[in-house]
Amino acid sequence: MITRSEILAPKVVVALGVGLLLVGSYWGLAKAPAEVFMGDVQRIMYVHVPTAWNAMLALTFAFVCALFSLFTNAWKWDNRLEAALEMGVVLSLLLCMQGAIWAKPTWGVWWDWDPRLTTTAVLVFAFGGILALRAFVDDPAKRAVWSAVACIVAFADVPIVYFSVRWWNSLHQAQSTPATVSTAFHWPLRINAFGILFLWTGLVALRARVAALRLRSEIAPPLPEAVQEGKPATPSARLSGGAR
Amino acid sequence: MTGVVEGGWEFVAAAYTVTAAVLAAYATSVFLRYRSEKNRAAVEARRETGR
């Protein structure tokens, strides 16, 4: 049974995230100074870099959920895995779109097959593929195991994406962190990073509840007509989100 | 030619608009799916209790 406060909490966290994003974006667009070489175009950093950090975090959370799902066999970890996978793919796709918009005025092209961009594209297709796999497998138990294993394998690309700019000669700049950018840019960067963090954690919590409700109807479907008419029922596995 | 990118506000506007649109669209889809699943669960619960 889901209580009212359990649903209200994700909504409050999402609202907090939206509020922080509005403040951080206003700061980045109107208050922060322009960068010395990239000028105003650098303001894209205040949404692009927080999106990158949070995409990596969401996919790392999916990896943790996959491990717990395999080792505990609890449905709640599979529900969280589904939610985190979807959020990670959305953030990674958004990351690619923002990157293309930033690349055009600075590199002169929308896309380049450089190591960072290529490994990020692999990331989107790998995790997008796991979501497709989940959509095609009808058996909830098989779906949980297969997608958890696939997620653990696909996660190998996450550190490769992060370190690609150090390991290979990349057109993409090195990782932007508070240590590598000017102090004048710190606050909008941090505020937007926390904004997106709150937003996705709230959405993942809510999306996991959607997965839980769907699972409940899958593993305990409505009783057939014969049973509803009072005839004897065959035993059915009526699980409510516990162990598989 | 100064080596400094000049202008570019249209790209900044595009990046922020795309970000807002994608996040808003995904958030809306999650809320709508939650409402739809909750309603379906309520209908099924009513059907079972009214049996």
Question: Would you tell me the structural class of the helices and strands of chain B?
Answer: mainly alpha
Please provide the ordered H/E string of secondary-structure elements of chain A: HHHHHHHH
The proportion of residues forming helix of chain A, as a percent range, comes to over 70%
Count of β-strands of chain A: 0
- Helix and strand succession of chain B? H
* Biggest chain pair interface: A-B, 40 and 30 residues
Shape descriptor of chain A reads globular
Enter the CATH topology name of chain A: Four Helix Bundle (Hemerythrin (Met), subunit A)
Could you give the count of β-strands of chain B? 0
Specify the structural class of chain A. Answer: mainly alpha
- Which CATH class of chain A applies here? Mainly Alpha
State the helix count of chain A.
Answer: 8
- Write down the domain tally of chain A: 1
**Alpha-carbon distance between the termini of chain A?**
18 Å
Overall mean pLDDT score of chain A?
Answer: 86
Spell out the blueprint of helices and strands.
The complex is a heterodimer of chains A (244) and B (51).
Chain A: H1 4-31, H2 45-72, H3 75-107, H4 115-136, H5 140-154, H6 157-167, H7 186-219, H8 225-228
Helix pairs in contact in A: 1-7, 2-3, 2-5, 2-7, 3-4, 3-7, 4-5, 4-6
Chain B: H1 9-49
Question: What does it look like?
Answer:
The complex is a heterodimer of chains A (244) and B (51). Chain A is mainly α and 244 residues long. Chain A has eight helices and no strands. In chain A, helix 1 runs antiparallel to helix 7. The longest helix of chain A has 34 residues, at 186-219. The radius of gyration of chain A is 21 Å and the shape is globular. Chain B is mainly α and 51 residues long. Chain B is 80% helix and 0% strand. The mean pLDDT of chain B is 88. The chains are: A mainly alpha (244), B mainly alpha (51). The interface between A and B is medium-sized, with 40 and 30 residues.
